[in-house]
Amino acid sequence: MARRVSLPSEVAGQCVFCGIARGSQPASVVAESDDVLAFCDIQPVHPGHLLVIPRAHAGDLAELPEETGRSMWSLGQRLAGAVRASGLPCDGVNLFLADGAAAGQEIWHTHLHVIPRIARDGMLRISANWSLPPRAALDETAARVRAALG
Fold first, then answer.
1. Catalytic residue at 46?
2. How far apart are alpha carbons 50 and 28 in whole angstroms?
3. Among residues 89, 15, 90, 102, which one has the least CA distance to residue 57?
4. CB neighbours of 115 closer than 8 A, spacing ≥ 6?
5. DSSP run (H or E) holding 93
6. Exposed, middle or buried by CB within 10 Å (0-12, 13-18, 19+), for 122?
7. How far is 107 from 19, CA to CA, in rounded Å?
8. Which residue among the candidates 46, 57, 109, 111 is catalytic per the annotation?
């Protein structure tokens, strides 16, 4: 698999994805609505790798309005079906959103990847060394997240 190259998220002080949403930056648009836009990733894992972005800038999930998030995921789901039906090589699809640098976010405008997968492509490997935590630890984690929801 080719190494992915990090691109600067800003061109002349402007967010690249905001430029795409405005039409001032080039993109191979697949679908759009009033609040979201989908286009081909310029560094595709496989042909058919798409990005879904909000038209209004939201640097991360905390800044993304819930309704816009629903629109992004709904369009991502529809696009996953379209990629499968397109005739492009596709044995499965990953929907992936990196939120923050530690999660791999490189462009600071929220975006959902729709990634066609091919059997045994090696793109995502889950470690066989994971262990099941005790139920008490899971219950504690659930309680902390519930409390943070407010």
1. no
2. 10
3. 15
4. 45, 46, 49, 93, 94, 95, 96, 123
5. strand 92-96
6. exposed
7. 13
8. 111
Q: What is the pLDDT of residues 92-138, one digit of tens each?
A: 999 999 999 999 999 999 999 999 999 988 887 666 677 788 889 88
Q: Cα–Cα distance between 58 and 54 in angstroms, integer?
A: 7
What are the tokens at 109? Answer: 């405008």
Nearest CA to 6 out of 56, 49, 43 is that of 43
Tokens of 73: 């995921």
Chain mean pLDDT for the chain: 88
State the residue for tokens 């430029």. 19
Mean pLDDT, rounded, for 62-70: 97
Query: What is 110-148 written as a DSSP string?
Result: --EEEEEE-TT--S----TT--PPPHHHHHHHHHHHHHH
Phi/psi at 76 (5° precision): -60, -40
Structural domains in the chain plus CATH codes:
10-120 (3.30.428.10)
